[in-house]
Amino acid sequence: MIFNKNIFHLSAIVMATCLIMGCKGTARTADAAKAVHTAPIAIHLDKEQVWQLTAINGRELKPTDDAITISFNPEAGTLKGRTSCNTYSAGYKLLNAQLSILNLQSSDLFCPDPAMNAEQRYLGLLRKANRMTVEGNNMTLYSNNREILKFGLQ
To answer: In sequence order, what are the beta bridge partners of 150?
Structure first.
């Protein structure tokens, strides 16, 4: 009888150990899946792509003929675009999804309001951009994890 009792306790210990180890194994698998999911994504930008601004700070814009655009030249590390009034250009660095806009400059043509105010607002937000995502035909720029500018492929 004592022998059967010891086997019972030993079996209970083995089963408890298996359950505990199994849960640990599941946790590691979940952590590994999470790590894969949150891994930085390489962003590929083509030189010829022109992106049109579709939203500012989450507010959708109405499509117009004089829409704000941006395009990237990955080989040169430069970007350029146009607003309804002026053209602009800058250098940029993109490592995984981390973005740095460098030396943003624009032409100095005067435009009446509200176009001039919209241009200044856009350029100010573009200077603050520090992260980028591209999903299909949509590109989003963020400042401190807050969506600031959204573009659609033209």
So the answer is: 55, 140
